[in-house]
Amino acid sequence: MGSLEEVDDLRSWLELAGELGEVRTITGAHWDKEIGAASEVNYRRPSPPALLFDDIVGYGRGPRVLTASMANARRLGMTLRLGTSLDDRGLVEALRNRPNEWIADAARYPVREVGSGPVCENVITSGDVNLLDFPVPRWHEADGGRYIGTGCAVFTTDPATGTLNAGAYRMQVQNDGRAVSVNIEAGKHGAAHVREWFDKEGRAPVTASLGHDPLLLVVAGTEVPAGLSELEYAGAVMGRPVDVIRGEVTGLPIPARGELAVEGWLYPDRREQEGPFGEWTGYYSGGIEPVLTMDVERVYHRDDPIQLGAPPGKPPHDYSYMRSVMKSAMIQDALVRAGLPGVEGVWAHEAGGGRQLLAVALHQRYAGHARQAAYLASQLPSAAYMNKFVVVVDADVDFRSLDDVMWAVCTRTDPAEDIEIMRQTWGSRVDPLRAPGLPPFNTRAVIDACRPWNRLPDFPRVAESGRDLIDHVVRRWPDILGGSR
């Protein structure tokens, strides 16, 4: 069997995942909605496998699409190089303080520039570009087009410092395959880079990888500190530098062992109508709007490339589990770094897409402690975007269980006293509650679902067996009760 040390691209990742029994292959699916619908059914299964689509209608065998790459603990642990046998609890424990360590170590892993790589097996120049030569899915029934960029990593640079940013921005095929729109939220680091390039030179260079080691999707889809290269962050996770080539047109990096990549320039007045698209909130949000569009000047791809698909949608969706785990670890570390004592754990629930609903478990130590935790968590840079509810619970509550969290809300929250509202906070264009044309503000609630501080000594005891007794009966009747915890 292969090892984590041997994983250096999507194909070696797939080989190891296959040996672990974590991959299923579907043949004969149609790019128009069938790949998306089959993936959606799979996301809703317990511990869903990765799905590899081959022999896609109209494209034959070879060009493939992968979905659900990190939809369970085992594959996410594998992708993060933490192990190949982790369950949910083990993954959370293994991630404690790791994001901080990766951030601190990132500078030790600058990218390694190479002259060529597998992604250069085929290079297509602008006159011959047709992105529809690849089996690009229409993911949802009401999508406005085919989206080649869902599990992508879009690379931009700061024109003043050269610092690289990678973001997972959705990309819709335009102009019969000759162009691709890049939908970047205004508050993202990549959007700032593009604006700065427009101010300086009137255009902005962009490359985008569309199939790669799923680790690059993790780092592109997770907020890392401004000024830190996501490729260096990925190098810290792997323990070795990421190999890149330089784009022939822009000079920006492209993962050398990637499957499929594009390159070109964005211009302020070059826009195409984009959307609608089924978003991570679970709605077709944002409508149809003119979006910055790149006329593709180069396509790089391996023979029979594999697209990494990560379509959002009503949770659970492709990357909601990954986002929940990563955001939870980052927010917990940020609370501890801020000096907040007594933090038992944080979970960014999948029901809120890993962003909108946070549960913080706390050992209460002083009056006002729960509210302090709630306010801090709601506005941390790693948590603030699109957050709507922060629920603080006592440490005896399983903060990863939505049932337990809501039980605490129902039994320990006085709605008149324990729910506070924050207004005009950082929202998103994809919020289904945002009226068209209005700024993307949102409103958020902090909910104190802890036992009241002044009633801790006499608050009623919870009517459930203790952990020692539960463990005892599970050990006595493991065949019947072994899966109950």
From TrEMBL:
Tell me if Thylakoid is a UniProt keyword of this record: no
Q: Which InterPro entries match?
A: UbiD, UbiD-like_C, UbiD_Rift_dom
* Organism name: Streptosporangium lutulentum
Chain segments annotated as transmembrane = none
- E.C. no: 4.1.1.98
Which superkingdom heads the taxonomic lineage of this protein's source? Bacteria
Pfam families named in the record: UbiD, UbiD_C
Q: Which Gene3D superfamilies match?
A: UbiD C-terminal domain-like
Protein's name according to its UniProt entry: 4-hydroxy-3-polyprenylbenzoate decarboxylase
The record's keywords, sorted A to Z, are:
Lyase
Molecular function (GO) terms for this protein are:
4-hydroxy-3-polyprenylbenzoate decarboxylase activity
UniProt enzyme class: lyase
Annotated signal peptide:
none
